[in-house]
Amino acid sequence: MKRKANPDRFRWKALLLALLVGLVFGIVQVGEPLENVFQAGRDKLRSHPASGSTVVVAIDDRSLSELGPLPWDGARLAALVRRIDAADARRVHLDADFTRSGSIGEAAQLESALREIRAEVLLPVRLSIDPISGTRTEHRPPDRFARHGRLVNTNLVVRWDGAVRRQPYGADGGNGQLPSLAAVLGESRHASEGFFQVDYGVDIRTIPTVSASDVLLERVPPRLLAGRNVVVARTDFAAEHFIAPGTGMVPGILFHLVAAETLLAGQPIDLGWALPLALAGLVAMAMLALRRRSLAVGLVASATAGAIAVPLWLDAHQIHVEIVPAIVVIVTAAVARLVASLRRTYGARGTTNILTGMPNLQALQQADREGGIVVAARIRNYAQITTTLPPQHEKELVDQIVARLKFVARDAVTYQADQGVFVWIAEACVEEEFVKQLEGLQALFRSPIVIGTRLIDVAVTFGIDANETRPMAQRASSALVAADEAAREGRRWASFNPASFEDADWNMSLLARLDHAIEHDELWVAYQPKFDCHSGAMIGAEALVRWSHPEKGQLQPDQFIAAAEQGGRIDRLTYFVLDRALAAIAPINRAGRPFSVAVNLSVPLLERADLVPTIDALLRQHEVSPNLLTLEVTETSTLGSGAEQIANLQRLSDMGVQLSIDDYGTGFSTLEYLKRIPASELKIDRSFVSMLNKSQSDRIMVNSTIQLAHSLDRRVVAEGVENEEILVELRRMGCDVVQGYHTGRPVPWSELRERLEQDRSDIAA
Questions:
Q1: Could you tell me if residue 345 is left (phi over 0), alpha (psi between -120 and 50 degrees) or otherwise beta?
Q2: Residue 199's closest CA among 233, 230, 165?
Q3: What is the sign of the dihedral through the CA atoms of 50, 51, 57 and 62?
Q4: Per the confidence metrics, is the pTM higher than 0.70?
């Protein structure tokens, strides 16, 4: 016996799985690239300019062009430092190579300048670690310069992707703790070797920068430097550049300054990923515990909004969190809940009729029942009854039908299939005795069924299969085939003839085979080209479904389209063709050549509420303009008077989809019919076009149809153009578009595309 699923056990398993996945993302940092994307996005949202407390005096390409290449000697650096000090700067950081300060006299000038200026002097110290030996080396200015300034660490923490996201407060130098340049300029009192996250909400491009040549040549007003920190550093093309998140490659010195801006706003706090993950665990637990789907969806939506808004608010207060592990926890729990819900839903749908709650034929196959007589009752006018019956009354209809069947079925389980089919397994007995029971049941069904105030006549035929040696699924198919044979021959019942087993098996499982064909690429789409009647240019194609069955070969549409309509599979078949057709023409239209596609639309589909949204979604998915899709509604499939059919056609027309009345002339159209349908096109049936050169009446009919359509501002398509003579005549009549074997047979898309490209090459030539 199959053990019933325990909901509480599932919830705990889903929660533990979600937390485990979140822990992996947090510990291993699998989601670091995504975390960086989120952080960069938040930084962009709260972007603001730098404070302006520090100015960069840039040894840039213009300075090198005006004053000469690097290295600059001590005399030039001394002159630059004195100019900055004369402007009353607060601090001066000189990021230079002091080992290449020139001659003894030039070096002495630099030393004198560093000793005499009023501003506080900051000098760089960099630490390096040998990757093989692990030896740590300190690179600092010579003592003659170092004793006149404060030493600061200028190392950058560069991540695997070349970006700088974190910076140190300081480093352990050979002679004690060294604060970082960012910590000094940012007025930080944090004296540790820890790291902090750089706030790129500060727009790095707004840090004030002047050219060193402008300072030396006195082209910079002193007020730009007065009272500020001044950093002299290289920003030329050959200087070290790294990636600033959200900005791109920038000179290395700017990372120290944006880090200083971060510390000026306050000491950053890094909460990491553990706390958000714990909160996400609580959200996931609540979501898994909620029974109502709407509440669970609302909780996930609120958590998603919080994952965006809360970190943004925290960033503004110098508090940083990692949210990817938390998001992974919520997403994993949501997916687990969705999968469980789908399994429950489809498990119930697989063995139950959705409308009535009765077991279906799938349930019959799973019943593991053998023996007995399989009986199938076919309600022949079931479709007509349900078409005119309000949907809420269909279950009442089924209940009354089953109640009458119980006079023979008794305690046996009755299974409901599609389109008014009911099956049960009766106890084995002599066939003649059982037939008498069926005839009594027939007499019972002569009395009408009462639904509300309506009297409904029900026409029923029965089929039986008494062969107990075959599988139950085949016996149910056989009984149904027998019931259909009885209906065709005007009999009340029929017993299955084993000689017709092959056809019965095929017909009963046709819909299942059709589903299998869609899923395993047995179905494909052929395209018949359509040509502008006047220019001769190929302007589109009609998409036609084909079935390449591995055993029966090529099946014509009329062998399965009607079954798909009756069996409720026409929507899946139509959407399959639409998806393939739109995917085919999308690249051509993106390349700039308008190319349309026409697809047949079954009238039963027009009653579906999901028709318009599905077509709209497919158009958006493939990025195809609605006016490049034509939906053809067959005239002989007369539209009912239902308002929903006309409303759906109007919605499609309002979207921009072109509508065509197919097989025009073979039905019973009236001017009122043409007025009600918002079609932009009439498609004249091939039976009139193919005889155009031989039949005077057909010529009159086609010509009058073209004139009528044009007077109603509608385009005319003629199908069935079989020779040049017909094509010439259609041009003379003013027909707009033609298709047929003379202009092009239905072919796979690859062949049509080659012809289209060849036509384009011919035009270009």
A1: alpha
A2: 165
A3: positive
A4: no
Q: What is the DSSP letter of 353?
A: -
Q: CA 20 to CA 15: how far, in whole Å?
A: 9
CB 92 within 8 A of CB 145: no
Residue where the block lists tokens 């898309």: 749
DSSP letter for each residue of 495-551: E--GGGHHHHHHHHTHHHHHHHHHHTT-EEEEEEEEEETTT--EEEEEEEEEEEETT
Cα distance between residue 605 and residue 350, in whole Å = 23
Other Cβ atoms within 10 Å of 459 Cβ, number: 15
For 539, 701, 731, 737, 743, the CA distances from 532, given in Å and listed in that order, are 6, 21, 10, 5, 11
DSSP letter, residue 467: -
**Cα–Cα–Cα angle for 634, 639, 641, rounded to 5 degrees:** 170
Helices and strands: H and E segment counts in the chain: 28, 32
What distance in Å separates the CA atoms of residue 665 and residue 160, rounded to the nearest whole number? 71
The predicted-structure confidence for 142-178, as pLDDT tens digits, reads as follows: 999 999 999 999 999 998 888 999 999 988 876 778 8
The answer to whether the beta carbons of residues 742 and 529 sit under 8 Å apart is no
Which residue type sits at 182?
A: A
638-to-354, 645, 664, 668, 682 alpha-carbon distances in Å:
29, 11, 12, 8, 15
Which contacts (CB < 8 Å, 24+ apart) does range 437-444 have?
A: 437/408, 438/375, 438/408, 438/462, 438/464, 438/492, 438/493, 439/492, 439/493, 440/407, 440/408, 441/404, 441/405, 441/407, 441/408, 442/492, 442/493, 444/404, 444/407
CA 405 to CA 254: how far, in whole Å?
A: 86
**SS (HEC) of 548-589:** EECCCEEECHHHCHHHHHHCCCHHHHHHHHHHHHHHHHHHHH
Distances 642 to 199, 540, 608, 610, 728 between C-alpha atoms, Å: 63, 32, 12, 16, 41
DSSP H or E run through 460:
strand 460-465
Please compute Rg for the chain using Cα positions: 41
Kindly report which listed range (378-392, 519-533, 580-594) carries the lowest average pLDDT score. Answer: 378-392
- pLDDT tens digit sequence for 432-459: 778 778 888 887 888 888 887 788 888 8
378 neighbors 463 (Cβ within 8 angstroms): yes
Reported as a single tens digit per residue, the pLDDT across 476-529 is: 888 888 888 888 777 788 888 665 545 545 655 677 777 788 777 788 999 999
Kindly report the length of the chain: 765
**What residue ranges define each of the domains in the chain, with the CATH number in brackets?**
7-30+271-350 (no CATH), 54-267 (no CATH), 370-508 (3.30.70.270), 512-764 (3.20.20.450)
CA distance 620 to 586: 11
CA 490 to chain centre: 53
- pLDDT surpasses 70 at 112: yes
Mean pLDDT over 189-217 rounds to 89
